[in-house]
Amino acid sequence: xxxxxxxxxxxxxxxxxxxxxETPDEVVEMAEQAIEGGIKVIEVTMTVPFALQAIERLAKxxxxxxxxxxxxxxxxxxxxLDPETARAGILSGSEFVVSPTLNPGTVALCNRYRIxxxxxxxxIQEIQHALELGVDVVKLFPGNLYSPAMIKAIKGPLxxxxxxxTGGVSLSNLGEWIKAGAVAVGIGxxxxxxxxxxxxxxxxxxxxxxxxxxxxxxxx
Length: 220
Prior knowledge:
By secondary structure, the chain is an alpha/beta fold. The chain is built from ten helices and nine strands. The chain has one domain (about 1-215): TIM Barrel (Alpha-Beta Barrel). It has helices at about 1-15, 25-35, 50-60, 85-90, 105-110, 125-135, 150-155, 175-180, 190-200, 200-220; strands at about 15-20, 40-45, 75-80, 95-100, 115-120, 120, 140, 165, 185. A four-stranded parallel beta sheet has the order 3-2-1-9, with helices on both faces. Homotrimer.
């Protein structure tokens, strides 16, 4: 049941912060600021040096089962290319796994341990394959190659598909993606670019709050 609850929580939160950085400390700071700003689903990518250290620290501090809002967050691992990396992320505390591509072995491992997995897809064929493997949410990636109209195109033959665009989602188009039928969106560099450039990581919290406001407005 935990897997089903986690999928529901991720969809209800609606915005996933996709975090990349130069060090674990930098990514943890980004994550804490994003959570402070209201984004409660955090994806730490495996392109971060010593990414598992950041995941472990965040998983120890935050929990998807706590009743304390200040300590509530769902921590996951991203840019997972293979089952071995997925398992390492899970053992470090990741509660969900995100991949840039559809790797059947990674999906099988996540299903074995009842961990939500969101593989990257680009075609109807890939989405159908993902559904056959038991995937609950597919990541439309890179999202900047498509417009929100792609969701409608997917929903034509595959109305049962739950699609989360990632890459190219911004404050200006988030509402279009949600209204088109996206179950959630992944936010990458736009969330953190100003903070990294200025060194003021409180800007992540401010941008996160803007994204949450935009998401809630689109849902309303």
